[in-house]
């Protein structure tokens, strides 16, 4: 009681006299606390109800072996391309935690029920297969009739020189299976028939002529249910992709974003009704959107869960396309939530689409005229033999001009297209492997808007600025011959002697190291690649950081990644470090280290580290390749000294934060509630014990400091100490449990 007497007397000394009417705030506070708890639980219940309803609409229908497909006894047939098989594989949340956050459980279940065929196991095919296996589809079948050639070595990370002469599919299966043992992987090494496609929900062809592609696509398009068909290819610095998911494909979630919500402030009894929302957050609704209402008091007729169309959407209000004059009078409360409508896409079969492609998806707005030209160039390439030369180039040009659709054809572009037509370059394969892998996920799950229908891409700006000598493009009987046929042997020599610094070896870092090894970067006598990462491997990394295996869990990322990259290309000169890049490690990454570099590649996961590396590159005038991912979104930035702005030259706007008075008095959305809970947690379990310990360590000094401070913060601190050491003092572990339960 001595502690209480001292502290209470000090607190009484500091407290002002009460005004009339004060003294009942505690009960009101408790009442408000109850209201807050009720509001939060109601919001949670509402959300759970919405989730369960959405799950109910996606009920899965499964036929047995007596359906129209020829199946072995007991094998089930998936009646809809994106639907579950009724006995879904359990989701390993430790492994797929990141995917679950982006796709959601329903999408993951659809994905886990999907069987996919990948035909053509050159560089592009193996990249697609890798991405699908990591994503966790039910099965992947690898098809290829050809054998491993030296040209394949510069784009396929699963091949080694021991595989030369082996069937590509058979040479790929072992290393691909290591990526995910939960995915069934099989091979086909003979000629493919149309009937075999009925076993799959999606088929991808990376090395097929146009005539066969049209035949297979026709079968997939008319099959019931339709089979998603994708044709893609990479030719040097050019790439293409075509998607056909059937005559009526349903996209359940166009953008993958959470439905927009708003807190209602008022609703008028009018025709049409005006709905106003609180003005601390802009509404992200558009004219024509459907919304549902919940938790409205007064005008309860709107709480029926019926989707209603809105118009005249404004930042903080909208008009409801409904007569509310006979509804009850709005009193208070209510949440408006956007309803995401499914979208039906009518894909055309390849035979029709190739004649009437419609609008092309643009990736570079400075090349508006490029897709139509490439559309015809890829068709012409299919009609000519692959033994390319200058004489064949004229044939392409005549064919394109004869079409009558293009008047001005750039002969330089066609020359590059022709000479690189046989090469599958690793950077292009990696890029299109990611794009097509995502399209397969869209086809199997119905989540995100798919590619509709043609996509063409070129990267001619990657070529050296000076003209290439034809003799420089001759093959050298090396694993880099495909790359040399496009860039030349002199450029290849520069890559091999490059000194590169890769910062981070996570998801992006693994991809970069694989790409660099296949390209021969730092594989020459004077080359060196340094990779650093202070993190260790966890199970959740394995679903996207493909250089790691389950037996590597707990080991340093950089060491394992460096070893895996060396196995891809034994000539790679790589050094792995476990140092964080920052001011504290400038004795390791000193001036001599930075001066000796040719290029720096960031694979980081936080802004502060990016800014530090950017400043070092700016100081030492080194090129920096910056990139990052967030779910299904990504960004990239090339920082070239004296040519582009640096990473730190522009900053993202600060994240919007709610005022603390709103957080403490009326936390009305999820962000507010999380901030409120964190504040309460810190107060109970961090600030209060810290203040109590400060008092116990030196009572006289602490009381003197509080008396001298004499402000509201000091009074609050004293209240915390009294609460901890007297009012709610815990003498035993059981007391602690009781205290926690009451809280």
From TrEMBL:
Keywords: ATP-binding, Ligase, Nucleotide-binding, Ubl conjugation pathway
Enzyme Commission number: 6.2.1.45
PROSITE patterns on file: UBIQUITIN_ACTIVAT_1, UBIQUITIN_ACTIVAT_2
UniProt cross-references to Gene3D superfamilies, sorted A to Z: NAD(P)-binding Rossmann-like Domain, Ubiquitin-activating enzyme E1, FCCH domain, Ubiquitin-activating enzyme E1, inactive adenylation domain, subdomain 1, Ubiquitin-activating enzyme E1, inactive adenylation domain, subdomain 2
GO BP: any one term: DNA damage response
Enzyme class: ligase
Pfam families named among the record's database cross-references: E1_4HB, E1_FCCH, ThiF, UBA_E1_SCCH
Matches recorded under CDD domains: Ube1_repeat1
Residue span(s) of domain Ubiquitin-activating enzyme SCCH: 667-743
Any one GO CC term of the record: cytoplasm
Pathway: Protein modification; protein ubiquitination
Biased composition (Polar residues): 41-72
Domain (Ubiquitin-activating enzyme E1 FCCH): residue spans on this chain: 270-340
InterPro entries: E1_4HB (IPR032420), E1_FCCH (IPR032418), E1_FCCH_sf (IPR042302), ThiF/MoeB/HesA (IPR045886), ThiF_NAD_FAD-bd (IPR000594), Ub-E1_IAD_1 (IPR042449), UBA_E1_SCCH (IPR019572), Ubiquitin-activating_enz (IPR035985)
Catalytic activity: ATP + ubiquitin + [E1 ubiquitin-activating enzyme]-L-cysteine = AMP + diphosphate + S-ubiquitinyl-[E1 ubiquitin-activating enzyme]-L-cysteine
UniProt key word Ligase: yes
Domain annotation THIF-type NAD/FAD binding fold: ranges: 480-666
Record bears the keyword Nucleotide-binding: yes
Segments for region (Disordered): 20-72
Entry-linked PANTHER family: UBIQUITIN-ACTIVATING ENZYME E1, UBIQUITIN-ACTIVATING ENZYME E1 1
Stated name of the protein: E1 ubiquitin-activating enzyme
